[in-house]
Amino acid sequence: TQLLEQSPQFLSIQEGENLTVYCNSSSVFSSLQWYRQEPGEGPVLLVTVVTGGEVKKLKRLTFQFGDARKDSSLHITAAQPGDTGLYLCAGRRTDSWGKFQFGAGTQVVVTP
Amino acid sequence: NAGVTQTPKFQVLKTGQSMTLQCAQDMNHNSMYWYRQDPGMGLRLIYYSASEGTTDKGEVPNGYNVSRLNKREFSLRLESAAPSQTSVYFCASSMGGVETQYFGPGTRLLVL
Fold this sequence. Notes:
The structure holds two protein chains of two kinds. By secondary structure, chain A is an all-beta fold. Helix content of chain A is 0%, strand content 55%. Chain B is an all-beta fold. Helices cover 0% and strands 52% of the residues of chain B. In chain B, strands 2, 4, 5, 6, 9, 10 and 11 form a seven-stranded mixed sheet that branches.
């Protein structure tokens, strides 16, 4: 059973469209991270959010941490083919210092 | 800086064989991790080392052992490989806490 549920599992869109990926849990997390992974490589950190209600923006990517720190979302505006990849959320529970639990991931494909 | 390096990149084992996956980091990080990644499962923590000389079990430790040889190196050993251990194994390191985890390129293991 995944502690962190990601949805959707797969998303295929055209270049220029917007997309949102969700990461939900019944547990409270002290922090949450988003990673992007490309084929044959390890995940690379995009952002860390630590405060309930926090919103962070990185160019066309907007990350939000829920007020109750149980959920998060990643929104991409005007997606580009370079955004293609597996997006993973990872949460650190309040009772597990240093250890993160990962969601199953959302595979995003952006076609020209 | 090489970051996080893993050897080997690929390995094929027969059921019952043993092997050790090597991981090294040159970023002077305190914490190191071993994950496995299976389709539809995201990354699952096998073992974790908060600092040199300490190790802790993750979600799926059965069938594995680890050694934190020094601050740089963290190895994962399969004593008697089983087909269920066919997976992609990632090593990661971080300063600890909410800090960024830096991942290696992965080891692809097939157990026949």
